[in-house]
Amino acid sequence: MSTDKDRCSYKRLKECTVKVVSDIRHKVGVLIDEIENVCGYDTVSACVPMNGYYEVTLNTVDQIAKLIEEGLCIEEKQLEVTYVGFRIIVVSFMNIPHYISDAEIYEKLKTWKVTPVSEIRERFYKHGERNIADGTRFVKVKFPPEVASLP
């Protein structure tokens, strides 16, 4: 049985929590083991069964990002893993001059208090054997709870 001292060491941060969706009810121990195979030993602070999914809290935001990036597979089935404390949205920037660098876009995202979780990608026209940039770039970003949209 854990003591209050043990419980105090666990994080209770919403931004360290993900939703793991599965149509199969897995044993909690199996789920924890698979998550810790991806994120490292002793990284799971909580695993709460909900209706059709689990809310899993890890120790750090970096561990959450790693779990989302690498994914989670149990019994050869890929499980959906999404943030609880943040919203992840793909944003598009249209009609961006070609001379604007990705670094400038990353800096702008920082001023808007959103965090990129993927690399910036670019859309192209197919012209014969060549790809010609059309001025559209897009990136997956993490919105904190206090930011509703980009200006």
Secondary-structure map:
Elements: H1 4-8, E1 17-21, H2 28-39, E2 44-49, E3 53-58, H3 61-70, E4 72-74, E5 77-83, E6 87-93, H4 102-111, E7 115-116, E8 121-127, E9 130-143
Antiparallel strand pairs: 1-3, 1-5, 2-3, 4-5, 6-9, 7-9, 8-9
What name is given to the CATH topology of the largest domain? Alpha-Beta Plaits
Question: Terminal Cα separation, in Å?
Answer: 51 Å
Helices, by number, come to 4
Order of helices and strands: HEHEEHEEEHEEE
Low-confidence stretches: 1-9
The named CATH superfamily of the largest domain: RRM (RNA recognition motif) domain
What Rg, in angstroms, do the CA atoms define? 19 Å
Architecture of the largest domain, according to CATH? 2-Layer Sandwich
Q: How many domain regions?
A: 2
Biggest sheet details: 5 strands, antiparallel
Strand content: 35-45%
Helix vs. strand class:
alpha+beta
| Helix coverage percent | 10-25%
Please tally the β strands and state the result. Answer: 9
**What's the rounded overall pLDDT mean?**
86
CATH class group of the largest domain:
Alpha Beta
Shape: elongated
Question: Can you list the strand order of the major beta sheet?
Answer: 2-3-1-5-4
